[in-house]
Amino acid sequence: MNATVQFWIVIACVAIAFGYAIYKAVNMVRKRNEVSSPCCSCDIPCKARELKGQKRKK
């Protein structure tokens, strides 16, 4: 195989890997910004609030 062809194959692989990393980072930021429940704006996470409620009931 020609050195030029090998060079372009390596460039293509690096470009695909870089694009995939950007894609994953964008998805991670989108998921972080989604509102999953109405309690997300609270200062105490929903799970902690539920546990406190269960402890009070006992």
Any overview of this molecule?
With 58 residues, this protein is mainly α. 74% of the residues lie in helices and 0% in strands. The chain is built from two helices and no strands. It has helices at 3-33, 46-57. The termini are far apart. The model has no long low-confidence stretch (mean pLDDT 79).
Q: In sequence order, what are the helices and strands, one letter per element?
A: HH
The helix content is: over 70%
Q: Average pLDDT, to the nearest integer?
A: 79
For the secondary structure, the number of strands is 0
User: pLDDT below 50 for ≥5 consecutive residues: which ranges?
Assistant: none
Counting copies of identical and different chains, the oligomeric state is single chain
Question: Roughly what fraction of the amino acids lie in strands?
Answer: under 5%
- So what's the overall shape? rod-shaped
Q: Gap between N and C termini, in Å? A: 74 Å
Radius of gyration: 23 Å
Task: Kindly name the structural category.
Answer: mainly alpha
Report the biggest beta sheet as strand number plus sense, adding barrel if it closes: none
Total number of helical segments?
2
